[in-house]
């Protein structure tokens, strides 16, 4: 029998070569694996570096967007305050025009020629529809014009009475009225005032001390019905007086407010005597309450300072007062809210 070829004389040498080749093949594969792993590590480092750079860029963009949002929010808040102030002035002018137009109608009743009753009819019709939002914009000027026209339709009206009515029917112009003298007014310079300063631009008024000898009616409260707060006084040194139960509730609210914000609640006006109510009505018109009807006159209302950045519509302080105040009996009435009939972010009332 022939022997196996594995036992032929040249077989051991070829096997050794095969082992060496196999060994070399294994070694080459391992080197390739190391190189591949190294390249993968480099790529991973580069990816991580790119990710960190992207994160930094995104953070920078977020920061710029946040700064822009804050700036826009501040501008929007200032614009909203200006619009609300203009709205208050316009509503006040409308109410004044209505009151004076009613006076003109009453004074001219039976004093005008029959043919001129149409003028009084148009005036009465405007008064009836003046509260309609769609006609409100033109109502003020139309009321002024028709009221003035009503005064001139008859020579039988006493001249002195007519002059008096003319004065009553001509309210002060709104700030945006311009004189019709044919001269183009120079534009107002751009405002440079701090948007965080007070939004009140009228004459100064102060809180009231108890009314000496008061009978307990609105604006005439004696000291026996009032108690001052334990903190604060106005610029004249008058303490902040409220009805005794309202003060007790406010003291509890103030302790919670101080724990939240680190300082006492700022006060501006509290009790308002009758004489001050009269003065404010004369100075501010229908924006101020009719004397003898103000909640301040009963010692259950307070005003915080008119500072938009501290107590304004979107401030943390106001949001806290709206959320927590009712627990202590203090609320902001619906008419004083931002969408109310006479927006006043500074006004709060005690309801028990």
TrEMBL record:
- Transmembrane parts of this sequence: none
Outline the extent of the D-alanyl-D-alanine carboxypeptidase-like core domain.
241-352
* Pfam families in the cross-refs: VanY (PF02557)
- The annotated regions of Acidic residues compositional bias extend over 174-183
Cross-referenced InterPro entries, in alphabetical order? Answer: VanY-like_core_dom (IPR003709), Zn_M74/Hedgehog-like (IPR009045)
Region feature (Disordered) = 170-230
* Protein name from the UniProt record: M15 family metallopeptidase
């Amino acid at each position: 029998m022939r022997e196996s070829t594995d036992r032929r004389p040249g077989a051991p040498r070829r096997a050794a070569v095969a082992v060496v080749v196999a060994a070399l093949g294994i070694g080459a594969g391992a080197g390739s694996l190391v190189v591949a792993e190294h390249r993968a590590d480099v790529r991973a480092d580069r990816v991580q570096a790119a990710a960190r750079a992207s994160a930094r860029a995104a953070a920078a963009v977020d920061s710029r967007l946040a700064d822009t949002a804050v700036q826009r929010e501040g501008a929007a808040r200032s614009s909203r305050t200006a619009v609300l102030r203009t709205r208050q002035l316009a509503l006040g002018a409308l109410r004044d025009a209505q009151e004076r137009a009613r006076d003109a109608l009453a004074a001219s009743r039976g004093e005008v020629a029959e043919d001129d009753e149409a003028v009084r009819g148009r005036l009465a019709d405007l008064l009836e529809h003046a509260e309609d939002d769609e006609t409100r914009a033109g109502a003020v000027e139309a009321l002024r014009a028709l009221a003035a026209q009503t005064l001139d339709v008859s020579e039988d009206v006493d001249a002195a009475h007519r002059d008096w009515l003319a004065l009553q029917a001509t309210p002060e112009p709104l700030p945006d009225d311009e004189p019709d003298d044919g001269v183009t007014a120079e534009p107002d310079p751009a405002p440079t005032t701090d948007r965080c300063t007070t939004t009140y631009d009228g004459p100064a008024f102060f809180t009231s001390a108890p009314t000496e000898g008061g009978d307990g009616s609105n604006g005439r409260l004696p000291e026996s019905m009032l108690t001052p707060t334990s903190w604060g006084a106005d610029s004249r040194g008058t303490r902040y007086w409220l009805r005794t139960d309202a003060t007790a509730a406010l003291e509890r609210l103030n302790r919670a407010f101080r724990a939240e914000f680190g300082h006492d609640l700022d006060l501006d006006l509290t009790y308002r005597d009758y004489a001050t109510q009269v003065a404010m009505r004369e100075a501010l018109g229908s924006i101020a309450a009719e004397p003898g009807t103000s909640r301040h006159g009963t010692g259950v209302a307070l005003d915080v300072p008119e500072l938009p950045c501290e107590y304004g519509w979107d401030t943390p302080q106001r949001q806290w007062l709206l959320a927590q105040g009712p627990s202590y009996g203090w609320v902001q009435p619906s008419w004083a809210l931002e969408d109310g009939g006479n927006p006043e972010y500074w006004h709060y009332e005690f309801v028990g």
